[in-house]
Amino acid sequence: MITLYQFAPIWGLPDLSPFVTKLDAYLRMVELPYQTVRVNYWEAPKGKLPAIEDRGKKLGDSTLIIEYLKATYGDKLDGHLSPRDHATALGMQRLIEENLYWAGTIHERWVLHKEIALVQYARALGDPPPDLNPLRESILKQYYGQGMGRHSSEEVIHIAKTDLSALSAFLGDRLYFMGEQPTSLDATAYGFLVHFLWTGYESELNTYARSLLNLTAYCRRMRERYYGANA
What we know:
Blueprint: E1 2-6, H1 18-29, E2 34-38, E3 51-54, E4 57-60, H2 62-73, H3 83-112, H4 115-125, H5 133-146, H6 153-171, H7 184-197, H8 204-211, H9 213-227
Parallel strand pairs: 1-2
Antiparallel strand pairs: 1-3, 3-4
Helix pairs in contact: 1-7, 3-5, 3-6, 3-7, 6-8, 7-8, 7-9
């Protein structure tokens, strides 16, 4: 059985990390049996989570893990996509994971409303809650080095709203992001969008995301299909 290493559940979501939530969704979508284990991120391959252990191998990075799972167990979601569709899905994945992540998740939880990470994350991670200030300092350095941290808060929120609007426009009235069938892009989209829609705090970005009704309906559809109607 696959072991999925994670941080900790929070707000009724599988994990406080959208990357872990993405991989959790993917494993459910392809119906691979797995168990979850909470670990410290520095114990994982590459020093970050999620990570998995399977067939005696430990792997890190959600995208590389999914590539491994496809190669090992077959590609149950993306086999019908054309090369052009694959390229489009990759571009949308990069928008979510490389831009919206920094402008949305990191800016909200570690910069704008730091109590989310320092208090709510800490409570989820342990009793007594760990001191996450050193981790925050490290993340802020990465945030600045990545480039997003050089913008004003107003500019970053504008960037995140633009990304959310683009996702809403791309989804349109389709059931899933690439059409009538779910693909691995939906694991990424769901894994990140629920961290704006269904969280234990209110923010400008959460409010904006909820105003994009097709994204809300999409996430409900995914949750009902893969997590059960009462999830």
